[in-house]
Write a structure and sequence with these properties.
With about 270 residues, the chain is an alpha/beta fold. Helix content is about 35%, strand content about 20%. It is globular, with a radius of gyration of 18 Å.
């Protein structure tokens, strides 16, 4: 069963959470692949095949011990100034004069997903908030992709922003009613302190939504590439930086295996 990690907002920790799940499952012998249907980033990582993808998917591929490839992020949006957006579809730059039709982009995303899913368990990442009501009719990366490929969904909320329980409940509430059953659980990210103080609020969110609480990730100082500021070449051969990235991912995977219900996450992915 494919798993999609959605956030209650941008920068909630989706990219890192997908990388950590990929790292943990890979260390435990599973063959997994990251995927993000559509990414918005000024800079890109260039794969060995010459395809431009988001830096986050390159990091997630490394977490799986794999070389990044174009199918991991088939649609990349690059701001080109003055309100103009450049579309990179399947690694090729499209005209930035107009947005390609949504159905065409969905078809490209699904085809790339299917090529990967024929070989790997899929760990997918959403983009921004999944319930921007003014964008939902043309949102590809979040609920549309989850529905197209029948994914289980995990929500990540960033407690550093404040209002994490309102964000979790509000996001769940704004998910279309016929899709809420797909939202299986939630994670609270970047917590500092004793998580016991959160328990009464966690219990209330579980009661209101039926989502399963999957754990709290503590705030941790790590070294990872910034998805929006690093542009890389040569297939990710970063030398000392790569070692720092992998050390950080292993450290986070160790924490996740202690603090999160990774057994439940594995069962979502394997379907057993």
């Amino acid at each position: 069963m494919p798993l999609m990690v959605l956030g209650t907002s941008s920068n909630a920790g989706k990219t890192t959470m997908v990388a950590v799940i990929c790292r943990s499952l890979t260390r435990n012998g599973m063959k997994v692949s990251p995927f993000k249907a559509l990414n918005l980033s000024l800079n890109a990582y260039v794969t060995l095949g010459g395809e431009e993808i988001g830096m986050g998917q390159a990091l997630q591929a490394w977490a799986c011990g794999r070389e990044p490839c174009g199918d991991m992020n088939p649609i990349l949006l690059k701001p080109a100034g003055k309100g103009v957006m450049q579309y990179v579809v399947n690694g090729k730059v499209r005209s930035n004069r107009e947005r390609p039709p949504t159905d065409e982009l969905v078809a490209a995303a699904c085809a790339a997903y299917d090529r990967l899913a024929s070989e790997y368990h899929m760990i997918c990442e959403g983009s921004g908030s999944p319930v921007e009501l003014n964008l939902m009719d043309r949102d590809i990366a979040n609920l549309r992709m989850a529905k197209e490929r029948d994914m289980d969904i995990v929500l990540v909320g960033d407690i550093e922003r404040g209002g994490v329980f309102a964000a979790l409940y509000g996001t769940w509430l704004l998910v279309p009613e016929d899709m809420r059953h797909m939202v299986k659980g939630f994670v609270i990210n970047r917590f500092r302190g004793d998580p016991e103080i959160l328990q009464s609020a966690i219990d209330r969110v579980v009661e209101l939504t039926g989502m399963r609480f999957l754990g709290t990730m503590p705030y941790t100082d790590i070294i990872l590439p910034d998805e929006d500021t690093i542009s890389a070449r040569s297939g990710g051969r970063y030398g000392d930086a790569m070692k720092a990235y992998m050390d950080s991912l292993d450290r986070l995977a160790d924490i996740a295996e202690k603090e999160l219900d990774m057994g439940a996450i594995r069962r979502m992915v394997t379907g057993v």
